[in-house]
Every structure is written in structure tokens, then in C-alpha cells.
Write a structure and sequence with these properties.
Elements (H helix, E strand, L loop, with lengths): L1 H18 L3 E6 L1 H5 L3 E8 L6 E11 L2 H4 L10 E16 L6 E17 L6 E16 L6 E17 L2 E2 L2 E2 L5 E12 L1
Antiparallel strand pairs: 1-2, 1-10, 2-3, 3-4, 4-5, 5-6, 6-7, 7-10, 8-9
Length: about 190
């Protein structure tokens, strides 16, 4: 009996030691690749943290017209918009454990946009800052650490540099951004 209890204690401590290490995850957003872009994210679960995940990411993509048309001022006006480069810092709190089930979080990002307009020469670039609250669900359906992270968020954005005009046409920058994505990730 004493040997059995000792073995249970040893196995329990080994499991705890495994969860008390720093873990690294990598994520991509496959939709960005389909939209002539990319998205790579690096996430870290700090040692001794069961619920916290922090990270950084870089991303780019061409905006489909459905996203441009969400702002009625720009709808059907011939704008081509590219999120040329974005850099973001992320923080997430997972209610169950990191990269499993429901979570909430925040993102702070700096983004550069390139805009063009039908029947106008040239392009313009502007940069903005994004502050976004987000939430989602992470599904890990396999016995290995591949996961699917569904998320959506609402953010505030404001121009910090550059021009959002081409000729006398102004691309309207909405201060409110609603966005969602599916990330595919793997914990190393």
C-alpha cells in the first residue's frame, strides 16, 4: 500500500512539473495566405501559468471587398486596400487551460495600409494603431498539440501617420473595427 501511494505521488508530481514549464506555440491564419498575405504568431505560456498566454505576431493581406464595404462610406467606391504590414502584441486568459476551450484577450497593434482607387493614379499609405478586445474558443481534437483557434474581436483604431487620400478622394477610416479569424496552431 505504501509503495502504491509513493508511485501515485511521484506520477502526480511529474505531471505537475510538465505543466509548470514555459510552453511555446506557433500559429498561422490560413485565410491570409488565400488573400495574398501571411500571418505568423508566436505565443508563450509562462512557467507556472495555467491560464495566461502572451505573444506577438506579424501579418498582411489584401482586403476583400466585403471588408472594405463594411464601411458604407467606402462601399462600391473602387477602393483596393492592402494591410501591408501589421505587428501585434497579444494577451489571452484561458478559462480552462491554455489553448483549450474558451478564452478572452486583448491585442495592441501597429498596422500599415496601402490604398489604391479605380481610375486614379498612384497609391497612398497610412499607419494606424489598433486596440482590440477579443474572445474565442480553442479546439484541440487530437492527442497531439495541434489546435484550431476561432476568435472574434471589436477594436478601436486611429491613424497615426501617412495619408488616406488619393487625388481628391478620401478613404474613410472607421474608428471601430470588427474582425474574426481562424488560427491553426501547434504547441512545441
Amino acid at each position: 500500500m505504501l509503495i502504491t501511494l509513493s508511485n501515485i505521488t511521484v506520477f502526480a508530481q511529474q505531471g505537475k512539473e510538465q505543466t509548470n514549464k514555459t510552453e511555446l506555440s506557433i500559429e498561422i491564419d490560413p485565410a491570409t495566405f488565400a488573400l495574398n498575405g501571411f500571418a505568423f504568431h508566436l505565443r508563450i505560456k509562462p512557467k507556472n501559468s495555467e491560464h495566461l498566454l502572451v505573444g506577438l505576431g506579424t501579418y498582411a493581406m489584401d482586403f476583400p471587398s466585403v471588408l472594405i464595404d463594411l464601411n458604407s462610406t467606402n462601399k462600391d467606391k473602387g477602393w483596393d486596400v492592402r494591410l501591408n504590414q501589421g505587428y501585434g502584441l497579444f494577451g489571452e486568459y484561458h478559462f480552462s487551460e491554455v489553448n483549450k476551450k474558451w478564452y478572452v484577450g486583448a491585442q495592441v497593434a501597429v498596422q500599415e495600409f496601402k490604398i489604391q482607387k479605380d481610375f486614379f493614379e498612384g497609391e497612398s499609405k497610412y499607419s494606424n494603431i489598433l486596440l482590440m478586445g477579443l474572445g474565442g474558443y480553442t479546439l484541440q481534437p487530437f492527442d497531439f498539440p495541434l489546435y484550431f483557434k476561432f476568435w472574434g474581436g471589436v477594436g478601436y483604431t486611429g491613424k497615426i501617420a501617412g495619408e488616406n487620400f488619393i487625388g481628391n478622394a478620401e478613404y474613410d477610416i472607421s474608428p471601430i473595427l470588427i474582425f474574426g479569424a481562424l488560427h491553426i496552431g501547434y504547441t512545441l
